[in-house]
Amino acid sequence: MPITQSRYQVTTSSLPRAMPGKSPHYTPAAKPVSYTRVAISPPSAGSSVNTSAVPSLISGSYTGSASGDHDNSDVGAHGVDLIDMMSNRLGNVIDPLPLDRSLARQAQASGELNAKQRELQDLQALAQRRLKGTRANLADGMKAAKEVRRDLEWTQKRVSSLNAKAAKKHPTAYKTASARYPAPIDC
User: Fold this and answer.
1) In 65, 126, 133, 183, which residue has its Cα 20 to 30 A from 51's Cα atom?
2) What is the rounded distance in angstroms from the CA atom of residue 165 to the CA atom of residue 155?
3) What's the half-sphere exposure (Cβ side, CA atoms, 13 Å) at 165?
């Protein structure tokens, strides 16, 4: 027994599919006002006419081709072509309007989803740009904070050295000024 391989293509794309449009010559089928019945008399007992609604493939009475043509030579009793009659009835029964409406709703929903997807992509790109700008601002702020801390440490050292010099050079004035203006308490 030969081994057959599946030749189906698996797609992982989440993009919407293009829907085929109607041909410019499309006309919706009109609903019939009333149905008519066809009276067919049963075949005679000795007749070889197929009595089922579907032509038999064994008897060879149906010689239709793959293109949908059928042989009109096999006509039922009294000149009624059963295939034409059934196709006419089915054509009149099917109402394409709900199918058209659902196709329009599907196309509209697909369009709305596409618009939302584009909007989300735009918002994501905007958020990425803002995040990049915020990171740059944070880096600049951290750099500025380090510089300020370095400057404050240098200033504190300078003030401490000046206080020490002033205390050595003018001890009485330094004590009076220290009593009047106490040093701030570190937290």
Assistant:
1) 65
2) 15
3) 6
